């Protein structure tokens, strides 16, 4: 790497951050950004114990610029845009002594902002699902099963508020016309039995079969 490239790289993060601040100042706009860095260091020395040392590092930076709702004496007051966010890293396999670096990791982050955050703010179940980031790994399903899931989701979306509340109660959720928890159950179903938890209640309440 040449000596001229380093100063240029050092300026880029500052310029990018300045641009984000300017964008956020143009109106009630939330700016969300992520940056990841991965480092792998291997040291081998027959004279030390253990003779092989491997270090793996992950550096993730998540930044959010939320414009203020107003000002008091020149100071920002309140937040103009609502947001819920969560981040989590998990190990999905055991560490084998013969393969110390062959470990499966899952890095997940998710958020809801603006109108979506306002909509779920009164539903603790959905807020918990967002900030805890405890969703399972996405599993591929058969095309015909996916079509059935989409048909069930479409039906739920068209339910009147009072019927959506009845279905939520039947599924053991808080009585609410908010369909998001029900749609979450449908989206996470990977087997007919899991989807049947929802479709059986739909049939029982509304006589609709899938």
List keywords for this structure.
210 residues, alpha+beta, two-stranded antiparallel sheet, flat, disordered N terminus
What's the gist of this structure?
With 210 residues, the protein is an alpha+beta fold. Helix content is 41%, strand content 27%. The chain has a domain at 139-210.
Written overview of the protein:
This protein is an alpha+beta fold and 210 residues long. It has a domain at 139-210. The chain has seven helices and six strands; from the N terminus they run H-E-E-E-E-E-E-H-H-H-H-H-H. It has helices spanning 5-25, 114-120, 124-132, 143-157, 161-170, 180-188, 192-206, and strands spanning 31-44, 52-65, 68-72, 75-79, 83-91, 105-113. The strands form three sheets. A two-stranded antiparallel ribbon has the order 1-2. Strand 3 and strand 4 form a beta hairpin. The termini are far apart. Mean pLDDT is 75; it is low at 1-26.
Which radius of gyration do the C-alpha atoms yield?
Answer: 24 Å
Tally of DSSP β-strands: 6
State the end-to-end CA separation.
Answer: 61 Å
Number of helices: 7
Name the overall outline. Answer: flat
Mean pLDDT: 75
**Low-pLDDT sequence parts:** 1-26
| Sequence of secondary-structure elements | HEEEEEEHHHHHH
Helicity range = 40-55%
Going across the biggest sheet, name each strand in turn: 1-2
Share of β-strand residues: 25-35%
Q: What is the makeup of the main sheet?
A: 2 strands, antiparallel
- Strand-pairing-aware structural class: alpha+beta
